[in-house]
């Protein structure tokens, strides 16, 4: 999983490289032409309302963001007004387009802009490029005494539905089936399996259970098998495993290969995905959350946010202070798209960068919420960075006064905890050996970040300097690497 990105395939000949460069140049020119045409459509339509198309679209977006904030952060009449604005803003824009005869201009400009984005992304994705993802894996020997811990309740009963116990035992694994009626010390079960001679530990369960057993496997330098039998299976997804068929993960026992990945720790406790502080962690603490997630969040958010005046958290990521954050998300390796509104959000392209991903959110009111929606990662409401160590100092009031409590709610891989402050999050680089099937779906690489200056250089290499270099870039030169 070192994920080095090769911009041009050194094994291909000069003719192939030239053809690839020519295709990228053509795509870049098409992107610029389509973007220019979208602008021309609006300019030519000024007399017919082209300027109104632009202004109404922006106003509708801002109004919708304000309505969303009022809806989640308030109760009573303001929440009702927020719901009306959230629904009414886009509907009003559509009605304005139809009644004013502007929908043709809007659709044409939108279609041209979509074509421009598609061509631009394709031009930036170079021929022969190897995505920054979970590779390479190394050959792995077949385990002789694998032990798999399975939670029959996880994922709504996937263990039974996919016949995981029978299939695992048929492949030579010993299965430890948890008792749903009694809490189990999963860490102790994993340690006992190691003491009894297990040479592989695996889990069919949620990410929280995965993390506990993974820590024992890392402690004894044993391979670890992930079986995607949880509800969301984020860790399995970022390992490139099949989330729709947990039984496919068992193929690693007979035809597997090994990946070295990082393992996160929060106050000494392991985590494989994320640690959340602030609003989400407070919601997860509520007993009713497990059975009614959306309803619980809907009821709790106004009290927690208080219209932007709720309590905050102070934290430090390496040497960078993060004061007064309403929510802090710390991930085992950064996400490919830190912008929560991006289509690529929620995916990690690699799990061995040795860096924590850090996202802090601070929204002070409706105007700040609208700025976040419009500007995304450029908004000062969103702090996105990477770090090797994050320390959450504790809660503060909206005015920055430290709260008296010496603890803070935390959600660790979705599990609710309360930990004493300060809470330290760190990473153990390459600590975990993960056994994966040789045949697996893999990780879909995110689209490259859009850079119109690079598009211009690719489209007109003679006028704006040389085109893309034929040599592979070093990690420090590669802007497409996660966490760069």
Approximately how much helix is present in the residues? Answer: 25-40%
Distance between the termini: 16 Å
> Radius of gyration over alpha carbons?
25 Å
Share of residues in strands: 15-25%
Please report the total strand number as a whole number.
Answer: 17
Mean pLDDT: 80
Identify low-pLDDT runs: 1-17, 339-344, 466-484
Q: Indicate the overall shape.
A: globular
SS summary, helix count: 14
* Main sheet overview: 11 strands, mixed
Structural class: alpha+beta
Plain-language structure description:
The strands form two sheets. Strands 1, 2, 3, 4, 5, 6, 7, 9, 10, 14 and 17 form an eleven-stranded mixed sheet that branches. A six-stranded antiparallel sheet has the order 13-12-11-8-15-16. The model is unreliable at 1-17, 339-344 and 466-484 (pLDDT under 50). The two termini are 16 Å apart. By secondary structure, the protein is an alpha+beta fold. The protein is globular. It has 14 helices and 17 strands. The chain has helices at residues 14-44, 50-73, 77-99, 103-124, 158-161, 164-170, 186-195, 207-219, 234-238, 246-249, 279-284, 293-305, 366-375, 452-459; strands at residues 138-139, 146-150, 174-177, 200-204, 223-227, 256-266, 269-271, 274-278, 312-317, 320-325, 327-332, 356-361, 382-387, 389-396, 407-412, 415-420, 423-437.
Q: What key attributes describe this structure?
A:
globular; 6-stranded antiparallel β-sheet; single chain; disordered N terminus; 11-stranded mixed β-sheet; 484 residues; disordered C terminus; 14 helices; alpha+beta
């Amino acid at each position: 999983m070192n994920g080095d990105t090769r911009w041009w395939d050194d094994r291909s000949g000069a003719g192939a490289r030239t053809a690839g460069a020519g295709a990228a140049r053509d795509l870049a020119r098409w992107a610029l032409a389509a973007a220019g045409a979208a602008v021309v459509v609006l300019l030519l339509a000024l007399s017919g309302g082209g300027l109104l198309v632009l202004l109404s679209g922006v106003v509708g977006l801002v109004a919708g963001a304000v309505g969303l904030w009022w809806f989640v952060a308030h109760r009573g009449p303001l929440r009702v007004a927020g719901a009306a604005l959230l629904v009414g803003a886009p509907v009003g824009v559509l009605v304005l387009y139809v009644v004013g005869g502007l929908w043709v201009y809007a659709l044409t400009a939108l279609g041209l802009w979509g074509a421009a984005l598609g061509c631009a992304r394709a031009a930036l994705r170079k021929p022969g490029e190897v995505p920054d993802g979970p590779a390479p894996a190394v050959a792995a020997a077949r385990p002789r005494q694998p032990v798999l811990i399975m939670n029959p309740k996880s994922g709504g009963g996937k263990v039974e539905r996919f016949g995981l116990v029978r299939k695992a035992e048929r492949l030579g694994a010993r299965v430890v089936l948890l008792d749903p009626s009694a809490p189990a010390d999963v860490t102790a079960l994993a340690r006992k399996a190691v003491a009894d001679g297990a040479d592989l530990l695996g889990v069919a369960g949620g990410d929280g259970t995965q993390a506990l057993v993974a820590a024992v496997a890392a402690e004894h330098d044993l391979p670890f098998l992930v079986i995607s039998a949880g509800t969301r299976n984020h860790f399995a997804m970022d390992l490139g495993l099949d989330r729709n068929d947990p039984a496919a993960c068992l193929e690693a026992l007979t035809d597997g290969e090994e990946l070295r990945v990082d393992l996160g720790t929060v106050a000494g406790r392991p985590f494989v995905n994320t640690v959340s502080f602030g609003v989400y962690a407070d919601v997860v603490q509520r007993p009713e959350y497990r059975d009614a997630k959306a309803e619980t969040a809907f009821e709790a958010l106004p009290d927690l946010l208080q219209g932007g005046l709720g309590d905050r958290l102070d934290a430090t990521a390496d040497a960078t202070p993060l004061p007064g954050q309403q929510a802090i998300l710390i991930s085992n390796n950064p996400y490919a798209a830190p912008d929560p509104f991006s289509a690529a959000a929620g995916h990690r392209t690699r799990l061995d960068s040795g860096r924590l991903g850090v996202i802090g959110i601070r929204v002070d009111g409706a105007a700040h919420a609208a700025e976040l929606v419009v500007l995304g990662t450029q908004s000062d409401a969103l702090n996105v960075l990477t770090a090797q160590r994050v320390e959450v100092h504790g809660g503060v009031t909206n005015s920055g006064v430290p709260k008296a409590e010496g603890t803070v709610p935390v959600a660790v891989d979705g599990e609710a905890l309360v930990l004493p402050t300060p809470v330290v999050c760190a990473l153990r680089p390459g600590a975990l050996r993960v056994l994966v099937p040789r045949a697996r779906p893999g990780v879909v690489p995110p689209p490259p970040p859009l850079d119109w200056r690079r598009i211009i250089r690719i489209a007109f290499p003679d006028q704006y300097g040389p085109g893309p270099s034929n040599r592979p870039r070093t990690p420090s030169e590669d802007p497409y690497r996660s966490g760069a």
